[in-house]
Amino acid sequence: MRRHKTLEELQLELIELLEEKGEFRGSVSEFMELLDVRQEVVIPLLNSLKASGDINYEINGEEIIIRPASFATIPAVLTEEQEKEISKKLKEGYKLIASSTLGGVQSRTLRNIINKRIIIFFRNGSKVEGKLKGFDRYVLRINSFMGKMIVYKHAITTIIYKP
C-alpha cells in the first residue's frame, strides 16, 4: 500500500525545490508528477504556503508558475485592514501574543498556548486561524481547516488568541 505524504512533508519538499531551482514553471500535471501528489492536493498545498508568506503562484489554464515570496514586495507592517481586525478582536477579549512591533514571537508565551486556537496575521496581508500544535526556533505547526501547516515565523506580523 502506498503511503500518502502529509501536507507538512509536501510543504517542505516544495520549499526545498524552490530553494534549489529558484522557481517552478510547467504544467499542473508536471508539478503533480514532480511532488508525486494527486490533483486535489495541489491547490490546498499552494494556498497554505501562500498564506504563510513563503510562495506566490499563478495558474493560467494548465500552466503553473511558483516562486518564493522573496521575489515579491512584502509590507513590513500590518495593513490597515489587519490593524482594524486586530483591534476589534482585542476588544472581544483576545490576547496579543506577538507582533512585529513587539519584537517577534516569544517561546515562553507560545508554550502556554499549545492546543489553543490562534489567529496569525502575515506580512503579505493574509491570515490563518487554527490550533497551535507545536513550534521551534523558525516555524509554528498549526492545524487549520485546510489541514496541518508549517508557518514560518519570519512571515508573521501578529498572533492573537482567545484565552
Description:
It is a single chain. This protein is an alpha+beta fold and 163 residues long. The protein has two domains: 7-71, Arc Repressor Mutant, subunit A, CATH 1.10.10.10; 80-161, SH3 type barrels. 33% of the residues lie in helices and 33% in strands. It contains five helices and nine strands, in the order αβααββαβαβββββ. The protein has helices at residues 7-21, 28-35, 39-51, 80-91, 107-112; strands at residues 24-27, 55-60, 63-68, 95-99, 117-122, 127-135, 139-144, 147-152, 156-161. The chain has a six-stranded antiparallel sheet, with helices on both faces. It starts with 6 loop residues before the first helix and ends with a strand. 26% of the residues are buried. The model is unreliable at 71-75 and 101-105 (pLDDT under 50). One of its GO terms (cellular component) is ribonucleoprotein complex. Residues 105-163 form the Sm domain. GO terms for molecular function: RNA binding.
